[in-house]
Amino acid sequence: MEGTVNFSAGPSALPAPVVERIREDLPDWNGTGACVAELSHRGEPFMELAAGLEARLRRLMEIPETHRVLFLQGGAQMQFAAVPLNLAGEGGTASYVDTGAWSARAIAEARRFCRVQVAASSEGDGYRSIPPRGEWEVAPESAYLHYVANETIAGVEFGSVPDSGAAPLVSDMSSNLLSRPVDVGRFGVIYAGAQKNMGVSGLTVVLVREDLLDRAHPLTPTVVRYSAQAAAGSMANTPCTFAWYVASLVLEWIEGEGGLTAMAVRNERKASRLYRAIDASDFYSNRIPARCRSRMNVSFELADEALDPAFLEGAAEAGFIGLKGHRALGGMRASIYNAMPERGVERLVAFLEDFERRRG
Ligand SMILES: Cc1ncc(COP(=O)(O)O)c(C=O)c1O
Q1: Does the domain spanning 258-359 belong to CATH 3.30.10.20?
Q2: 29 has catalytic annotation
């Protein structure tokens, strides 16, 4: 039997060569005689890793000089608070687009720190779409406009970067960062937890436009204040060194595979293959319109949900893990981030067809 295929939504599969490299490096990283997790973040070997990590991310994403790169902790949900604290100042207003569970969480958290205008919402259709840009109502005094580029739970993704008018654009890219090229210059802030496409949980990447660094509410804690972390090279507190190390290996792997353009082509191919198989059958369905479908998280339902347990049992026997849908939605979800090989998707499609033949 072929090996395990990991469809987990996050934490999720790492590229196989990265796992192998971690195994090799673990007892003696870079000739230091110690595990990377055992070394000071201020020592020369780690400072070198830190500089390389930022340089590589800048190269891969073509991050302009106008933007600072921060490697923080607390996950994307810490950024749900950090964004309004850093950008909305005292008594400010921010606009949010509500396209799913993570948008809703970001909005609820932002309401603790600033006035929130919901510019548009797809809650009415069960978060299965993205309201057309023409229908958004962005408050003219907005300190920023926030959207979630890929809603991981339902599998809804923006196909392009929306126009934010005069307001700085802020995006949670936790589940599609590094999956395709993106014009960073169009954003005020991009943030993402690392545990989908950039390594392991613990690390949160924040790209912030330099001119936005001085807008923080005075009560913003130091470790989440962008200006303080930018001045300290993201070491205002002890960084999650092991996650930085894994991220550097993942970025090296992406570069070796041809960079973000190559990732985009491969991701498009994998997602189309899976949606084609789902659409070709009456036994499986995905009710998200094609223009809003995620290339990263492919959700689907069985026509008869009584068959869900048998499906998951068969999937486990076939070597698949992580296919059960989010507890809020049920059904199934296949997360196929950068690290998912095309062979993994082929095996899933073969399983879908075989299960339908046997049980459909
Ligand atoms: C799009 C998105 N935003 C935010 C989060 C929350 O991340 P965390 O719990 O690591 O803070 C997730 C987690 O899966 C996510 O997918």
Answers
A1: no
A2: no
